[in-house]
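Lecture 7 notes: from sequence to structure.

We start with a single chain of 1040 residues. Read the sequence below before looking at the structure.
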Amino acid sequence: MKEQLLQILGQPSYVPSTISEILRLMGLPPQSQPELHHALVELERAGQLARTKGNRYIATREADLIPGRIRMNRQGKGFLMPDDSSIKEIAIPESATGTALHEDRVLVRRDVSARPPKAGEEVQLTGTVLRVLERNRTQVVGTLCRSPRFLYVIPDDPRIPHDIYVPEPRDVGRKANVGDKVVVQLREWESRNTNPEGEVVEVLGPPDAEGVDMLSVLRQYNLPLHFPKKVLDEARAIGSVVRPEDLGNREDCRSHNVVTIDPDDAKDFDDAICLERGAPGEWRLWVHIADVSHYVKPGSALDDEARKRGNSTYLVDRVIPMLPEALSNELCSLKPEVERLTKCVEFLVSDSGEVLKTRCYPAVIFSRRRFTYREALAVLQRPPASPIEEMLHQANELAQKIRRLRFQAGALELDFPEMKIRLDDEGRVARIERVENDISHQLIEEFMLLANEAVAVRLLQLDRPAVHRVHEEPDARRLREYRDEVLGHRVPCGNLGHRPEVQRLLHRLGTLPIGAALKIGFLKSLRRARYAIEPLGHYGLAKKRYTHFTSPIRRYADLVVHRALFDQGHGSKHSLKETADHISNTERNSADAERDSKDVKLYAFLNAQLRSSRPEPYPALVTDLRNFGFFVDVTGLGMSGLVPFSELKDDFYVFDPVRLHVIGRRNRRVVRLGDRVEVQIAKVDRFKKQVDFRLVPSVAAQPLRAGRPGARPAAPVHAGRSRPARPHTPAAHAPASQESRPPQRRPMQGRPQQARFPQARPQPGRPAPRREQEEQRYPEARPPSEGRGRQYRGSQPGRSSHGGGHQGRPQQGRSPDGRTPTGRPAPGRRFQGGERQGRPSQGRPQEGRPSSGRPQPWRPEEERARTGTRPTERPQGRRDPRGGRPFTRPEGASSERGFSGRPSDRPPGRRDDRGRDPRGRPPGPGRRSAAQGGREGGFRTSQSDRPMLGSSSRPGGPRRPQSFGRPASQGRPAPEGRPRREEAQRGRPMGPQSNSPRGGGPSSQGRSGPSQGGQPPQGRGDRRPSGRPPRPGGGGRRPR
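Now the structure, written as tokens:
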């Protein structure tokens, strides 16, 4: 009935119908409605049908609904692998994953793009999870935790971002304590707005207890530890030796020099080779594979259990075999000096490595010797001492020729070194070994690839359905993104859509320090290999037809191919497709379990180092830079980790995305991609399964780079002080490199800077504190370090530009007069009592300076002898346009500043006492002379110093403030009915006893005449509130 339903719903003329309408379409009686309803529900759960509004059923393809398996990453984002291989991968945002968990089978609705894609543009498909069709796991392993009101479990799998609420554990065999590893049985989870709930079904024990770490991995990935009794009985019934009746219809290869080459700790030897010289210029090569299909028949308990497991899983401390050890390690294993049954692929190969002829048949062998990879490598590195060793040398030469032909055909070099963990008797990490892909590995690899390809070709010739190993071409969009990343690292890269360019890039990366990290990035941009019933080819191997044939003891796919090749019940296409999907999932599950088992042991090993007083240093390679730290690949551990900026205590580091490096602000230490550093363990997070590192202290104290070659080393800077401004250097004396210098902020020229922390304005009529009154009366005695306002850099010798440094304290490495150890002037500063070194004015020869424009130190004694004046105590940075010298103040003039932060005494030549400029022109509109009580030089006042409205005591209420910079008796007349307000009516004490800096004193009275009411003229400097010291650096803005 299900097949008939799918045929009817798949017809072009079908419209969504109810159960009764479908019943009439199928011509069934009303009594068949319960059976039809049951079939519809099962097809809906399988994702083949969808139910729309009004309980109408439609095929999922017609409703634009896609069933598939979702895979989550640690950030919560999902990716759907559709059941239909013709549909590309669909990205699912975190907010659209619903209640799906990692590896669940779900039904997804594809989103409609906002705009149609352009010609040649590939847009990432997105979708939303509508329903979970099948849970991949019903149990979750995690750590039991307690909040003040409830218990919850934090899953060990970081791809499950939700905590699981659990009740108090009961009847689980042992008491559960907070912090124990537990197994939780998940309940129905219907809404994403709530956390999932479950029940503790098993308590594994404390995480530090012996064996609990690996037991957690077994439970998390649902790996069985034992075989059912029925399976074991079948394996024992087969026997342990080859029987005479098993030798029928087999070719006898027992006289050949057959050898096996496997890892040191291997027990399941499923492949063997033999090579002999044939006709001149030809070689005869035999590849023997264990004949597991002779013992494991379809439909048996052994076959069902092998299909359920899918493959063997190789954990750090144990192996979870696909078959019982009676078969995997004994009868099927090609052990030396015993007879074994095999499936043989015989090749006739030319001297150049080309395959001339292939033949497949069952055989029986008698292995002569078992080699490990280390023993085989030692034999290949020395002259042969026996016929078998001579055969290994010949086989290696032939394998290298075949390998060269494979890469010439377009194969990609994607091999990486493997890290193997060796444990001691107590289950702790004893050592970590690096397994290289040397010539002994390549010898077996090339012959096995040759056999897999030959069998795939033979299956297509026989037109038999089978399981193929496919590796589809990568998505063009991902290749473009990866190409942009490579170009960002300044590595030449062409169009990666062409295979020769990919080969050139991989070869180029093999010669670069950053090549290993970029090579890993290329692997991530590729699709993952899987099993399918269609021969879609293998992208990485550059083969159009490829399958798995050479490992039937540990892979169920190879067992299926053996049956299909020799016609031993291969099954239908539908059953093969289900098998291919199933073993693809079990392969990924085993790979994740193997990786986690290594991580668990490594985390325990690193955590023990972290608790020790002297953690070991490890060489590492910088592989990625971020704004929070940089990632390193620790080759000695076979893992990657983060070096956060918080672990770099010697400086404050920032990430420069333009130059792609990390640089310290003070010591100028630079970290770039591909740098080799030494790191130590800093933090181990077992929940997130992340490791943080820190740089080795002896290395962290030394700069990796100080910029580009030829760049001048940066001046030492004290912690907490700003870096001094860089002095101007003429073009003739410019340094060779300027790129390594960071951009410097120069002080604003010609504009006063506002105070960073303005002080509170006291209330009118309220006296200022005593200390501030004394400072206003005796401004000369106020320490220059007082005041939090921002000043020009170098405005006070030996102090920071922020006004918070110690008075008279020179910078480290400089003399008290501001010079560097090499005799150069301090950048951006002037000598004590002298001028600031700066750019010569418009390139004209300056008075008292050489015509070359080179800055010379200013000697105040010579200036005083020449002009009869003394320099200001706090030189300001404004220069006389005639000579480039700082303005000076005549003897006896007040040393107080005006309201703008510039010297209150203007030099001769600017304006006279009546405000006229050197040409005799009167002050312009809105300006007044010093004699009129206004500011010298004709500058306007700031809006921030206007009188406040509502403060007048005249009848009629608040008045309009007077014009800027004019006293009440000067300037434009006030409008009718709006008399001007006097400053004396603001409620501040005025006159000779005033606390204002310019409210009294001989210097202020001598510069300005009397005004109305006998009060002194009120300029901008007089409007500063009582008790507030003048702001260092000047006043406010100009009015609009």
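The first strand starts at residue 49 and ends at 52. Keep this in mind for problem set 3.
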